[in-house]
Amino acid sequence: MNDSKPLENGTNTILTAVNSINLILGLPINSYAMCLILSGAGGTMASELFFLNLIVSVLTSSLASVFYFAIYCNIKMIAVAWSAIMLFYVSVPSFQRNMVKYKVTVSTAGTSMAFTTNSVFIKLVGREGESKRTKLTSIIGAVIGAVDFFQGTASTFSVDCPVSLGELVLIELEKKALLMAVDWFPNKIEIESPEGDIYHFPIYRLIANGQTHLFKEAKAVPLLVLVWWDIAEEGIPHCMKAGNPLDLPYEVRFTFTKSTEFLFTLSTGLVELNLKCLANSKDTWKTINDIAYVKSTDISDYVREHWKEDAFFGHQYLNGVNPILIRRCTALPDNFPVTNDMLSIHGGRSLEEEMKNGNMFLLDYKNLDGVEANIINGKQQYLMAPLVLLHLTPERKLRPIAIQLKQKPSEDNPIFLPTDSEYDWLMAKIYVRSADFSDHQLNFHLLRTHLLAEVFTLSLLRNVPMVHPLYKLLIPHTRFTLQINNLARGFLISKKGFFNNYAASGGKAMKTILQRSTASLTYSSLCPPDDIKERGMDSVPGYYYRDDALQLWAIIYRFVEGILGYYYHTDAEVQKDSELQKWINDIFFHGFLAEASTGVPQSLSSVGELVKFVTMVIFTGSAQHSAANSGQFDYGGWMPNTPITLRCPPPTTKGSSSQSSMLEALPDVAATANGLSTMWLLSKQSSDFHPLGHYKEEHFSEEIPCKFILDFKAELAEFGAAVNARNQTLEVPYTYMDPQLVENSVAV
Prior knowledge:
Blueprint: H1 5-39, H2 43-73, H3 76-90, E1 100-108, E2 119-126, E3 129-130, E4 134-135, H4 139-144, E5 154-161, E6 168-176, E7 186-192, E8 198-202, E9 212-216, E10 219-220, E11 229-230, E12 239-240, H5 256-272, H6 298-306, H7 310-319, E13 327-328, H8 351-356, E14 360-364, E15 375-376, E16 379-380, E17 387-392, E18 398-404, E19 415-416, H9 422-463, H10 469-474, H11 481-491, H12 498-502, H13 508-519, H14 528-534, H15 544-567, H16 571-575, H17 578-591, H18 607-629, H19 632-636, H20 659-665, H21 669-683, H22 703-727
Antiparallel strand pairs: 1-5, 1-7, 2-3, 2-4, 2-6, 6-9, 7-8, 9-10, 11-12, 13-14, 14-17, 15-16, 17-18, 18-19
Helix pairs in contact: 1-2, 2-3, 5-21, 9-13, 9-17, 9-18, 15-18, 15-22
């Protein structure tokens, strides 16, 4: 019995240590699990953690039982043997000194619900051999599970092999659940070989349970089978086939943050604007001062004060939300019979002289001509197709000098002038501004940014693998585009959506306007250098949209030229790239409906042609969308400046308009409230916002492309500083193309 005494005395210490381990491990595991349950963020993960704690308890209790048995039986050899086993287990790495080690670093996405608590296995495949299927577990991760693959973390592991595998060409990745499957979204895996070489494996996709995923070096399986084309309406760009956001591949859905914020803003917009009590009102506005004006911005305050002024009316067509409609007028359209006798031009100059001098400009809403305006609550709405002549004065102010509200001249379609009565002229401008709302929303905003960006995105996902430089370059500029368009089809342009319920251009009108706008779409109109020249707007003073668009286009062009020039050295390389040619052909067919008259290339034959087209794609989804979207509430927050519908036909004779007839024509209370709420929603920036040029996902690994990205960001920052300095001097700043406020993609 004396021989067993030392062992028995040491056992108390060992058992105390075992129980302490049980407590130390169990308390944080159970506490963390309870936090997950209480927060509602991880019921599945919590269940696995509770089960893990049970396993730890069983193992430590088993260890204690073995020592008790050794003491009771006075069998020293059992204790010695058990200790030897434990020593061998702990010191296994010392027996692997002849093994070569691969350092594997796994980065999990930072978005909510990207983590997993399941087991992850990897196999490395090289040109000279392959590793065993290895479970990725660190010492800490083996105990508390969630650490290794938690969102926003990068964890490092070791994969041991008897000999070097040579150049790595492939990895196999598999995830298996202990109890409940928890999908995982890793960003990338980087592997350092024993020779010191670094291999990059971009993932950026959902890893489901029980499936083996193969990833090549700098390449992953493209999303060729997960997205399909659909035709929502004949005569407009094709879209993605998806019934609701849950039908979208996980890779292209909103992050948890984006989803939560969007749905919250959507559901609380009326409340936030203090308009909830007005949303279903049947009333009309009795006085101009009664009109709802709630949430304001600096610019919307300015709009409310100056909306009646001719100079501000003209300003909006240079620097408002629809700055691509205006063009220089060198000859009047035949259907717009303005004469010198009607006009009073400063300095006594004639209309012909001022057109020759380049001081006359035209707004032509011909795409709205003859559309069947919406019927709301059984009441016919009205949508005009105006012609507007504007004059650039010696004071460098752009002012309207003649307005015809319908395309076809007639006795009941007078040409309104600034010399007419106050309300005749004001009403004419109101009908123009209402027409501009529909043209802006359906043509410039929806068609030319949202729908085209969706086409660019779908074609990329369907045709271009992740290894391709085009994919790496464009994928950040497709972020959230598919889901935001899916939501737009549900909330804005569906049969029960905003346009059908409240806008004059809802119902049949919307389809007609979109089809006509698509038919008039050209490649050159999507490229600011070409578009501005074609519209004769290259020398107009105070045209800040033009100035910023050309600067941003040039910066994006240099960036694209650098990146693509690194990969494509000759035109022949572009011509022989089958994936590239499939991408452009899909865009031509599905986006521009195979119309050669658009000028969109069906194939790409040179590096220069490729650079220009890709520049257009990036510009459209970032800067152009910002120009069309960001200022909606600024210029629409005061409803009379941008009426979404008009409830009365336009005046057919002069002298018949009054404040009373104006109020009768303006949108009713419910339409106003819902219009303001919608524009507020669409103008609101998400906290999950990626500014232009900021790429959080590292798709490029080569040194030179990464340097081009840094140069791109530096150029954008320099340009942004210049924009801010200029805006300090302006009465109405133009901020919509400030790179810090421009999102990488169509995401709202």
